[in-house]
Structures are given as structure tokens and as C-alpha cells.
Amino acid sequence: MKPQTRFNRRDFLQTATAATAAGVFIGTSSASHAQDSPNERPVFATIGLRNQGWTITDKSTKFADFAAFADVDANVLGMINEKLEKKTGKKAEGYKDYREVLDRKDIDAVMIAAPDHWHTKISVEAMLAGKDVYCEKPLTLTIDEGKLIEKIVKQTGRVFQVGTMQRTENQHRFLKAIALIREGRIGEIRKVTCGINGATGSPVIPAIDPPEGLDWDMWLGPAPKVPYRAGTEMRRGYGGGVPLHTNCHYAWRNWYETSGGQMNDWGAHHVDIATWALDASETGPNKVTPVSYSLPVEYKDGYPTVSDQYNSPTKFEIHVNMPGDIPMIITSEGDNGILFEGTKGRFFVNRGRLAGKPIEDLETNPLPEDAVEKVYGGAVSENHTANFIEGMRSREQPISDVWTHNRMLETCHLANIAIRLGRELNWDPTKREIIGDDEANSFLSRESRKGYEINM
Is the peptide bond before 138 cis (omega within 30 degrees of 0)? Predict the structure, then answer.
């Protein structure tokens, strides 16, 4: 088990181990093929294929066979299947409805890269169908969704990896950063700053007919029923080939109805590493204060007053009071990455660099050989998927388990709620509720659209 394991996760592992020893697989309709046959390649399916869906599939073909794909856009489904055939020589069976994937007994695990508002429904139903799950971050749309996923992981004994791959990849820069802190190279931490970039608003986006091949109603799924919107300008670079301004495709991240803006997108990466470094993965903050922020549209009572423009924050500075009264700053300004400041020095880390005097000092005073492994909880896996499959075989939770992820993501969710309501929030990390603010607590959950409730 990893050293950052939570108490609830220990309970899960004890329950799962006892059940396995007794020949019982708890709460599932079928056991994992990968678990029963550790020398065989597991059989995967990917649900949600555009952009990150192909990215995680592509890097996973080294370790698993893909038998099925599901996407509500027939064009994407065909395109990704062609990519798979070109790389592996075989196509996957394609489906519009992910439930047909979950019905298949030959699928050991699903990789979920659908938009955020679909994550919880698909994850829960996949676990109840006997599948292990790899789900992209951010795992949930609300805090209460995270509690539900934790409950189902414990109930079913499934292995669940969240796609916060900075815990495993990026040349181990983030693991080295945490190792430096664990070894006391900057003394006691006094401040952590997470730079997660700002965003831009949008012009008024017209309602038009959805493109041919896209089932718009099913794409919306649990989200409120709204018309498809898209401008004429096309997106370039990563995520290209789709409208630049839309409430679908790549830009769904800019709408609270389907995501959480930059706070949940990049925040789910850097706040994750910062929380891990602060040994706060079993608790979280007690106060979240929106020092400054900019919203692209007017809000009333925490909700946007218009529906034809992006509505997530464009700029922000959030102060978070972490355990030990250590301040964590989440900001849209400055470099994308994490600045750790302590009593003996400071350093900066992101996906491209690890810099500062404590890093330079490693030339004459290197970290112990096992320092990174101690942070990771053992030998570092080849990549995030490899770590997931190792967990499938051992029936232990992988490095990005749901408990530590949800504790981190609660900070991001609370920051968004504080921005939407324009006030400081006091958080009880034991009860996992906002103190003395019924209106703010109403944002901890969200009702699914009729017909798209979670099938329990």
C-alpha cells in the first residue's frame, strides 16, 4: 500500500483481501479476467474518445488489448477506431451507448474520458457491472459525487485509478519535488502557490443544429437540457478540428454545467501535488477565501444569468488555509506550476522543469537513492496505466486512488463555490460540509436530468 493511504481505503483493502481469501468477489456481477489470469493482457474499453480519450488509449495499448469503444459522436468513434487499427492491426467494437460496453463479460476495465458531467454515472455503473475503472480527472462535478464513488469502490472491491498522471509521469519531477520536502531540503513549508493559468470568456455563441453524427441529447446526459451552441471560428492546435467557441467538444470545460473551468482542469493536477506534499491527503482545508476573481458573465445567487457565453472564471486568486495554517494560493497569474517556499529555501516545479537552489544543491548533496520510491510507495511504475494494471493484478488501489483525489478536489470545488457566491467558506474536513452556510452547501450536489440518473 502507498504511504498516503487513507483510513477508508485501508478498510476497503482489508475487506477486499478477506473476500478474495474466502473465494468471494464482493458486490460485482463478474470477476476481473486480469485478476484471474495475471499472465494475460487485460481487455479494456474506452468510453469517450476525443482528445484525452485517444491519449490514454494510445499509451495503454502496450499493456492492454482494446475490445470496445463508446462515443456519442459517430465521427469520433470512426476516427479513433482507425487510429487503433493503424497502431495495433485490430479495431475495437464501436458503440454509441456505453451501457452496451458494460454488458460485455470480456471487458476487464474501462477507461473513461467522457466530459466531467458523465464521470460519476459511468464510473459507478461500471463498477457495479464488475469492471475496474481508470477515469480522467477531475473525477467529479460535485463533492457529493466523490462520496458516492468512494462508497461504491468500497462496496464492490473494484480497483480505481484517477487520471492525475503527474503522480507517475513527467520524468518523476513531481515525485522528486515531494521527496525534497520529505527530506527537509527547504525546512518547514511556509507557503505553496499553485499557478493554473487563467481563461478567456467568449462572444455570444449562437444556438444551431448539432453536427451530423453527434447525439446531442445523449452528450448532455445528466446535465441540463440546453441547445447545442457553436460559432464559426475553428479551434487550432490541440483539440483542433472543432469550433473554438461552443458548449461541446473541447470547450465544455468553460461551463459550470459540464465542468469546473480552470480550477478543476489544471487545479486537479497542481493542487493534487501540493496537497500530497503537505501531507493533507487525508483531510484538506478549513477555509477557502476568494481574494479576487473575474467571471465572464453576471451571476445571481451563484448561477449565471445568461446561457449563451462561457461562465467559468477567467482570473482568480484564492487563498486556502491548509492543515498547520499553511497558506495555499491558487492563482491564474504567473507560471503554470507549483512554488514551494520553506524556512530554508524554495523551488518551483512543473511538467518542464524543477528549478531553484535546493535543486542546484543536489549536485553535491543528492537525495537518498530510495527517496522517490518512498514517496511513490514502491518502485515507480512505467506509466499511469501500468500502475493501474499492477493494481488490477494485486487488487490494491493504485497511486491515484479515489480517496486522496477527492480530498484534493474538494479544495477546487470549494474554490469554485466561493467564487460563484462571492464569499469566504469555512469547511469542516471531518463532516465534509460547509459550516453555517446552507446556500453554499446546496452546491455540494447536483440533480441529474430525468432519464439520466445513476442506475444503482
Answer: yes
Is 349 in contact with 174 (CB distance < 8 Å)?
yes
Cα separation of 269 and 318, whole Å?
A: 16
| Predicted structure pTM score | 0.92
What is the per-residue pLDDT across 126-142, written as a single tens digit (0 to 9) for each? 999 999 999 999 999 99
Q: By C-alpha distance, which of 413, 398, 429 is closest to 9?
A: 398
Burial label for 425, CB within 10 Å (0-12, 13-18, 19+), is buried
25 band by pLDDT with thresholds 50, 70 and 90: very low
State the architecture of 7-168+381-400 in CATH terms: 3-Layer(aba) Sandwich (3.40)
Q: For residue 40, how many C-alpha atoms fall within 13 Å in the half-sphere facing its CB?
A: 12
Q: How many Cα atoms occupy the beta-carbon half-sphere of 280 within 13 Å?
A: 27
Q: How far is CA 20 from the centre of its chain?
A: 29
Residue spans per domain, the chain:
7-168+381-400, 170-378+401-456
pLDDT in tens, 253-273: 999 999 999 999 999 999 999
Calpha distance 217→236 (Å, rounded): 26
Distance CA 84, CA 449 (A): 34
51 — alpha (psi -120 to 50), left (phi > 0) or beta?
left
Fold of 170-378+401-456: Dihydrodipicolinate Reductase; domain 2 (3.30.360)
Start-to-end Cα distance in the chain = 29
Identify the band that residue 122 occupies on the pLDDT scale cut at 50, 70 and 90. Answer: very high
List residues bridging with 243 in a β-sheet.
234
